[in-house]
Amino acid sequence: MPKDEKSWQKAYVLAKKIEKNPEILPIMEADHFHSVQVRPVWRKRLHRLVRIGNHIFYSYKQPKAIKTSLRPQIRGQKSRPAELE
Questions:
Q1: Strand, coil or helix: 80
Q2: What is the pTM of this model?
Q3: Quick one: which of 8, 15, 18, 37 could link to 2 by a disulfide (CB 3.0–4.6 Å)?
Q4: Which residues touch 43 (CB under 8 Å, ≥6 apart)?
């Protein structure tokens, strides 16, 4: 039995949504990453994509904007800006 039932239910619902429509997941083209505890010299030659927790992800390619987000939707707001639809 999960320790945090509410979080488990959220994760389960999200997993079901992803099974039905995998395109809701953002695509990341990271080919390098490192911990925030180090500062490798190669990081300056790459494009920084995102920091997740204690890791920073980079790519040789210029990052592209993504159309979807897994952020919670605020009532009364569209899930994405009109120019992306």
A1: coil
A2: 0.49
A3: 8
A4: 32, 34, 56, 58
Token duo for residue 13: 């619902």
> Rg for the chain (alpha carbons), in Å?
17
How far apart CA 30 and CA 47 sit, in angstroms, is 9
Asked if residues 59 and 32 have their Cβ atoms less than 8 Å apart, the reply is yes
| pLDDT tens-digit series, residues 33-44 | 999 999 999 999
**pLDDT digit string, tens, across residues 6-38:** 888 998 998 998 888 887 776 678 889 999 999
Q: SS3 for 5?
A: helix
Please say whether the beta carbons of 67 and 61 come within 8 A.
no
